[in-house]
Fold these 2 entries.
Entry 1:
Amino acid sequence: MSDIVYLTVSGQQQGAISDGCGTIASVGNRWQIGHEEEIFTFSLTNSITNTGKGSHLHGLRFCKLIDKSTPLFVNAINNNEQLYMEFYFYRINRFGRWEKYYYIQLRGAFISGIQHQFSENNLDTETITISYEYILCKHLIANTEFSYLALPENYNRLFIPPLNPGLKTLNSKAVGRLLAAGGVYNGNIEAFRATADKLGGDASAGYEQVLNEKTIGLGIAAASILFARKQPNLRQLEELKKVKWVDENAGMSQRARNYNDSATGARSNINTQKGQAPTIDRTDTKNNSRPVRFDGVDGNVMIDRKISVVTTQKAKDQAIRQSEALNNNKMTGRWEVPNQTQASRAQKMFDELGIKNIEVKIVKEQ
């Protein structure tokens, strides 16, 4: 096959089957950094036909290496275990970089066949055939999708992996961070700290992780989630740990500074009262980690404000770095500009660069 496919699998009985399948212990020198918890898939076929009264699902078949998951798949077929499967497809874009462009999700999936192949001068592989009750297909770049549920009356019995139970514990560090966010938002830090102390466990430690000079911005960003949603997403709060803060560039105009400082989630240094910029790390081609700046943060969306959009090579390089950093951290971005002229200029540049994970929004100056 010309492109790369990675698979994650969770079983109703065995849990996260794909965890550790991309490690050296599992696949030897074929492991790939960043995909240690996924299964490398060589090929995939899926057949759906029209019966005249609807669709008939013939099953999905894929080929993979013999790895850590091989005995677990045998367990699954022996026990008729229900699986939840996600396939991620990658291709090379016009800039020579890998991009995730297609996605398949299966629910109510059961293994109907396994064929192991060990032969001379060939990789040791297995071909697995899956029957399923629900399929979702998405083209992530062109923004199209298809879904089909074979038996609607059985929808509620389809297995979906639960959230990490550690994030639901009332005295976990995650809850402590959530309380810290509330303390920052309400300006009542000590009262929320007392609540964390009363919960015990790791709640106090989680609270202290947020309320120090380096990470107080996380609390502010998390507070926007806490009070914008009836039920805050604790997994999303975990993502916000990736945000760090640095002092703003002192060379910008006062007009640009005022515009940038009014972005959602913008903050100032609690000691110097100077503006600070949120950053997330980007991994370059030499596997070095470098911070990439933005102006604000709204949940898991990084915000950059542009009072005037320029299209110099330096500006294009910045946009590419931001896009790559967002991909590295599984986040999205938003450029906020004051008028339609700047919005059109920004969108044209993104289209030319093939940047899909940063949207453009008009936000007028105050």
Entry 2:
Amino acid sequence: MAKQSNRRRLRVFLGTLIVALGISLAFTWLRTPEYRASARLDITPGVGSVTSSRPAPSGATASQRPFLTEVQALASRPVFEAAAARLENSGEDLSVLGADPVAALQAHIEALPVADTNVVELIATGRRRELLAPILNAVIGVYQDRLADAYRSASSESMAQADDEVKKLEATVVAKRREGEAFRMRNNIVSVERDENEVLARVRNLSTSLSTAEDRVAAAEGKLRALGASAAAGKAVVRSRDDPTLANLEQRASQMREELREAERGFTSDYLAKDPKVVTTRARLAELERQIGEQRRASQQTALLEAQEDLAGAQAAAARIRNQMATDRGEAAQLTARFNVYKSIQDALAELEKAYRDAVQQRARLDASERARMPSTKVLEAATPPREPWRPLYWRDTGLSIGGSLALALLAMWLVELFNRPDAQPAVVLIQPQAGALRYEGAPQALAYRSAGTMSLDASEPALLPRQVRFPRELRADEVAALMRASDDESRLVILLLLSGITVEEILDLRWSTVDLARGIIRAGGESGRDIAIDRALHQILEAAPKLPGSELLAGSAQRPTSRDSIDAQILCAAHDAAIEDATEITSECLRHTYLAFLVRQGIRFADLTRLVGPLPAEIIGAYSTLSPPGARMPSAKIQRLHPALREENA
């Protein structure tokens, strides 16, 4: 038997190895070799040169875009068309490349920019190694010629545009300057400065004179009112120093009063009344005081007349200035309008002159920087004909073929042995018979089938210890709430049914005929089952679900009917979506155990527990008794049946 097995293994191993080696080595060595040639070209784009309309890649920086644009131009079809024509003129046969040799060349040649440099690497891949290097060198030569031609064309066009712009701006400046000069002469405008225009200067001077005249009118009116008020109050209007006559009279009166006071200090009043000199002095003093009063009244009248004359003169001067200003105002307005027009002409002329100067400078810069703007190319590495194939790597692929064939042969041998494994033979204990050592009390016929030399003893199974019940994982209230939030309607319906005390088997057997939404109960377990109360969240889902009379509550689909595995898969998906730790441990049994543990920990009587969740095996009830709190059990009426995680759903 062992020899047959070894021969079978050898046949399978060698057969698989030979077939695999033949196929893989034939594939490896029958492939046509491909060759690769490369060349490197340094491109310095010209400033402002335009050689291609192809846009640079959008991810390139501003400094890279001219170079990447040149790379696109290098790989463009016009360059390859000119290179193909040059090769055909040199005697190369490109008909082997197909009906469109240009497209074939583009398919076999790629241009790769070297990072952080202005170097581009041209790589040509093909089966004709003698054609690869001439193609690359022809592409580089054509690109250099086209780049030089494009620069000359662009430079000539730029210079012509600059010359044309300078001429047009020069003509425009001359025309605008003539227009401004004609307007100035026609409207008698001296300059753009307002102070140098006669009418505007006269209006400004009249405004100043009017302000001064109005100040004089106000001062004269104030003086006249003050004189009138002083005269009405009996006060002196004119001061003595302003009237020499009045000052002389007051001085003489003051001397006489001083003489009388001197006499009164030396003589009595009776004597003084009889003294002719004193009497004469008093008479003269009285006459002087009368003259002083008359002089004061005359001076007051004169001052009032002078104030009235000053007021009238100031008012007349102000009126004359106003009349003059009214006459000059219209002329000043017209002049101002013409002045504004002239100023706008001058501003436009200044802008044109600035544009003209910029155009002249631009033209000069173009002329001076012609060589600096010229693009340049440098062949860093010309293409050379390849000597060795680029791919395939025959010896490497041969090694891979041998290794793969060996692995495949070993796998085939293992699979054959897997399906041809012999059945395991039971272990037999052989005991040598001894005289008087074996006591057999069975029927004598039972020994007829035993051999004389050996007998087998029936082995009895060892006694097993009672198996200890291991609970599934119990979910916390927050984990149940997260599971509900992450579930769809169908999964949420299953979770709510499990957390209502219904088993998975009962859920699969539920039909819409067992659901009474009006009474709010579900009949679980068939006709001899139990009524399960429907909470608010479960009622909403059942009410929104499509209902077919007599159909299953979880109908599933024709291709994938609902089963315990599909229910566990839905719960597992919801656990993963809720990011619950160790989600692979969560099944329908976990949810049922969570609900049972919730009821038992409240101290429910186990008789009421089976009426709520269905019958339980004795060992399960014994295991759950370890979760029950000490003390007397509570009736179902005092037990909270709604799980804490569902209270928020039913709020």
